[in-house]
Design goal:
The structure holds 2 protein chains of 2 kinds. Chain A is an all-alpha fold. Chain A is 77% helix and 1% strand. Chain A is globular, with a radius of gyration of 22 Å. Chain B is built from 20 helices and 4 strands. Classes of the chains: A mainly alpha, B mainly alpha. Chain B: Composed of 13 different subunits. Subunits NuoA, H, J, K, L, M, N constitute the membrane sector of the complex.
């Protein structure tokens, strides 16, 4: 296996992160310094984000047979890295109060990021499997990081067991496919599938469905969603902004890669399964979100429905590659920004307490205490609901036009009902912030910490919120950017 | 550039009034009022000094006064606003009622003034936007944007402190209804645009372009139905009227209520501007059903209004009843009835808003909206009973007021096309006189149930009522002025919708 210079340049962002991982490990074993490690991690993530610039000229490129980088994956990689940066920025003030070892948090985040970005570019079953594992193993640690808290260990354990099961599904699926095709490359799948006899096709199909099931588990689609709310509840807010975004973007990008190239997926069975999953995810996620009183659980269910909307893209991605990539980009960016703000705000409030402030009634009357912050959260919730002047509206608009253009009427119906149910849920949170504050001490505590905007996390939250608004009013730059990466 | 001011001024004044709240509590309302005044001046400037008439060059509408900026080019969406006579009339109505709304809430809103005026200005901005948008996406954009501030207006500034929960529920109900209507409309707009795209390979949301290319016959009906549903939910017409009465009962009685006068009128505007123009064939086919729905809501509204014990619900149902007549005018009428429709829209908004304002005044003194607890108020209150009598009579269409002209022209127009429809509609109007008189009788005449203290009408409300009365009488005596403004557009709309078939 010979790697030439060009491929090395293509691997630059990954190598930077790998180097950082090594430095962090060495630094932890030699001398623990929280500030240094946090600073190093954030800087290296930023450097690796910038180094993506060098990739633009040389993609598309194959790095051995394991990885395949395209312009589109650069987009997704940058989103994942941004979410990691946000996590580290949010986690720093949280970790300052943390009693035990602080530095491993960054190590775990870095490794998981590495796994996620490898997943977006992997082109081989082996690299796919390893990346998935690399991505999810550190997350057990991250979820359990605040292990002194209620639900934390439970969530971590749940995710550990279920993730293990899903990995075994993935492995099983891969081996089914391998048994027939004799090749682990993703590209060969397409070629082989056309030459097979019917019974063999069934077996490959079974394998593919197994692989998809594992992915849908990771994306927490219905019917593999039962863990979502519990794990969201038990996870610290700063971890959630990473957990909820990076894994989902990575897996979605690999799914989009699958579904836009391979004729395998013209198959009726897969189409049916996909539409059913999307149908029920939209309805179920939105319906359950209405009844939640814990805003972390709320976002868990709401993310199910958001990814449900996203799955609609996959149904048509082969015929309308261009448009579906554009839609996916808009939607995922919206998801990223909303996540950063949503969990950033929870984290901001939780910093003054020992535990996460995650109950709805604690946020009652927030607007009258922190108007700017509450306005940003309002924008985020409206964006999730898809109301004009936010980016979410364009995501919704694009998906809706896909539905109508391709006459997916059943999904369209669930989209309509789901959006309305979802809006009901989001409005509940919004109006809660505008009611008169109750007499509890929490809101009065916030009054003291008026300078949230000056902290790094505050700036990040502010920028993301404003981005949603600006891109919602004038999305041209974003659309041009996404079009230019194709 | 002048046109964009129509949207920019309300928006900025809303923002400023929100932030100025910190300095002094009185500033927001002044800023809001100034903003409305400036917008009104802009409209007058456009009306006097620009040639805004719609005229026709080879079946292509050309609005000589328009502003087109590229917005989202990859989807063919433009920031395209334009004004024609019809829009001008609706803009005058919106701004007139907007100013009155602000004046009414002058002293009534005692908490969070800044946020309240921000919401009011945003609603007005959205309404203005709906009237001047000539890009379907932009139209939808404004159509949806109204909902959020409206939601806050209903849910946060209710009259009684104790039923906060109920208010939020009603706000949710309103939101869900309108959201359904919005999503259906989005679907229809997309269908229309994609249909155009398939035929011409141009992705555009431009109203003028979509207008000249007839829609495929096979899906024209479906798209038309989508638009129709979206509009009649907002209007509201009977099967979809569930939100209106609750909404009126709970909304803050001064500010928001008047806006409703303007807000509800976006739906007849849309029906005339979009349904009638874009889908002439399907509209023609659909007309009997629409007329039937119009009858339904006309009679149902009137009968239910008769049995209400809550003043505001009564007025809300009377408004539903009048909306039925408007729907019949749109679908059953000819050019004359369209012109009557415009007068009817104006005068009905004014008289309904006036009744709401007066009922708000009564509520302020008696702390109840229940008609059965009132009675014999004529001896206790100065001015209000007289004004109420005038507005109630005007509402049922007494000669000399705008409503009479409106109803007369509508019925006259319909009679030429479908005599029977016109005759049945006339019967509907009889019921409206019954419930109006019943309301007046129960509230103001007879013996007092309780021993109320005597009180005067607020001096501000007094002048507002006087202005409204003059407006109605103006409409009733010199409707030609209004008809002149809108004549060309209405003429064009009518001819265009007839010519194609």
């Amino acid at each position: 296996m010979i790697i030439n210079l060009q491929e090395l340049i293509a691997l630059l962002p990954f190598l930077i992160l790998l180097l950082t991982v090594v430095i962090v490990i060495l630094s932890i074993s030699y001398n623990r310094n929280h500030f240094f490690i946090a600073f190093l991690t954030i800087i290296s993530l930023i450097v690796s984000l910038c180094s993506l610039y060098f990739l633009i000229a040389i993609v598309p490129i194959d790095i051995t047979s394991l990885f395949h980088i395209t312009k589109r994956s650069i987009l997704y990689i940058s989103m994942i890295i941004i979410s990691s940066i946000a996590t580290c920025v949010f986690a720093y003030p949280w970790l300052l109060k943390y009693a035990f070892n602080k530095e491993e948090f960054y190590l775990l985040t870095l490794i998981s990021t590495l796994g996620a970005i490898f997943l977006t570019i992997s082109n081989h079953m082996a690299s796919l499997f390893i990346s998935v594992e690399l991505m999810s193993l550190p997350i057990f640690g991250l979820i359990a990081y605040s292990n002194s808290q209620k639900y934390s260990l439970e969530a971590s354990f749940k995710y550990l067991v279920l993730s293990g099961v899903s990995s075994s599904f993935l492995l099983l699926g891969i081996s089914w496919i391998y048994a027939i095709s004799g090749n682990l490359s993703l590209l060969c799948l397409n070629q082989i599938f056309s030459d097979l006899s019917n019974s063999e096709k069934m077996m490959v199909l079974f394998g593919i469905i197994m692989v998809l099931m594992s992915f849908f588990f990771k994306l927490s689609m219905v019917p593999f969603h039962l863990w979502t709310a519990d794990i969201y509840q038990g996870t610290p807010a700063s971890v959630l902004s990473f957990f909820s975004v990076s894994g989902k973007i990575a897996i979605f990008s690999i799914l989009l890669y699958f579904f836009s190239y391979f004729s395998v997926f013209d198959n009726k069975v897969i189409f049916l399964i996909l539409s059913l999953i999307s149908f029920f995810s939209i309805l179920f996620g939105n319906l359950m979100a209405i009844f939640q009183t814990n805003i972390k659980r709320f976002f868990g269910y709401s993310s199910i429905s958001q990814i449900g909307y996203l799955l609609i893209i996959l149904l048509v991605s082969k015929d309308e590659y261009f448009f579906s990539v554009q839609t996916g980009g808009i939607f995922l960016l919206n998801y990223l920004c909303t996540n950063i703000v949503y969990f950033g705000v929870i984290n901001l409030f939780s910093n003054s307490c020992d535990y996460d402030i995650d109950s709805i009634h604690l946020y009652k009357g927030l607007f009258w205490v922190q108007p700017l912050l509450a306005s940003i959260v309002t924008i985020v919730l409206l964006s999730l609901g898809g109301i004009p002047i936010t980016l979410g509206f364009f995501g919704k608009f694009c998906i809706f036009s896909i539905i109508i253009k391709n006459h997916l009427w059943t999904i369209g119906a669930s989209f309509l009902i789901g959006t309305i149910l979802g809006l009901y849920g989001y409005l509940r949170l919004i109006v809660n912030m505008y009611l008169n504050p109750s007499e509890q001490s929490f809101i009065n505590d916030i009054k003291k910490s008026n300078f949230w905007l000056c902290s790094p996390s505050g700036i990040l939250i502010f920028i993301s919120g404003i981005m949603l608004l600006i891109l919602g009013i004038y999305p041209n730059p974003l659309i041009n950017l996404i079009n230019s990466v194709q | 550039m002048l046109l964009s001011l129509l949207v920019i001024i309300p928006f900025l004044s809303g923002i400023f009034s929100f932030f100025s709240f910190r300095f002094q509590k009185n500033i927001p309302r002044w800023i809001a009022l100034t903003g409305m005044g400036l917008t009104l001046l802009t409209v007058i400037r456009i009306w006097f000094f620009e040639d805004y008439y719609t005229y026709q060059i080879q079946s292509y509408t050309h609005l000589s006064y328009q502003l087109i900026l590229p917005w989202i080019s990859s989807f063919g969406i433009q920031f395209h606003i334009a004004v024609d006579g019809f829009s001008i009339v609706m803009l005058f109505l919106t701004l007139f009622l907007g100013i009155i709304a602000i004046l009414c809430s002058w002293n009534e809103i005692k908490k969070n003034e800044g946020f309240f005026y921000l919401n009011i200005m945003l609603v007005l901005m959205g309404t203005i936007g709906v009237f001047i948008a000539f890009d379907l996406f932009l139209f939808f954009f404004f159509w949806e944007i109204i909902l959020i501030p409206m939601y806050f207006l209903i849910s946060l500034w209710n009259q009684k402190k104790e039923d906060k929960k109920k208010c939020i529920n009603i706000a949710n109900k309103f939101f869900i209804y309108t959201q359904i209507s919005g999503l259906i409309m989005l679907a229809s707009i997309l269908l229309l645009v994609l249909n155009y795209y398939i035929n011409n390979k141009i992705l555009t949301f431009n109203y003028d372009l979509l207008l000249i290319q007839p829609v495929d016959k096979s899906i024209e009906y479906i798209i038309m139905l989508g638009f129709f549903l979206a509009f009649i939910i907002k209007m509201p017409i009977v099967p979809f009227h569930g939100w209106l009465a609750d909404f009126h009962e709970r909304s803050p009685y001064c500010g928001a209520v008047d806006i409703i006068g303007a807000l509800l009128k976006t739906a007849p505007y849309g029906l005339l501007r979009y349904n009638k123009m874009l889908f002439p064939n399907a509209t023609e086919q659909f007309a009997p059903i629409a007329i039937f729905l119009g009858f339904l809501s006309m009679f149902y509204g009137a009968w239910v209004a008769f049995s209400q014990v809550n003043i505001k619900r009564l007025i809300a149902y009377s408004s539903i009843s009048h909306m039925g007549l408007m729907l019949i005018a749109i679908y059953g009428g000819n050019e004359i009835s369209f012109q009557g429709l415009i007068i009817q829209i104006l005068s009905n908004s004014i008289s309904t808003s006036a009744l709401f304002i007066l009922s708000g005044q009564i509520y302020k003194y008696l702390k109840t909206q229940d008609i059965s607890e009132m009675g014999g108020l004529w001896t206790n209150i100065y001015w209000i009973p007289g004004f109420s009598l005038f507005f109630a009579l005007s509402n049922l269409g007494i000669p000399g007021t705008g409503n009479f002209i409106g109803e007369f022209l509508i019925l006259f127009g319909i009679f030429k096309e479908h005599p029977l429809v016109s005759i049945i509609s006339t019967i509907g109007i009889i019921f409206s006189s019954i419930y109006s008189l019943n309301m007046i009788q129960k509230i103001y005449y007879g013996l007092s149930k309780h021993d109320f203290p005597k009180f005067f009408l607020n001096i501000k409300e007094f002048w507002i009522s006087i202005v409204l009365i003059f407006a109605l009488i103006f409409l009733g005596l010199i409707p030609q002025k209004i008809l002149n403004i809108s004549f060309e557009s209405i003429h064009f709309i009518y001819n265009f919708s007839k010519r194609i078939q």
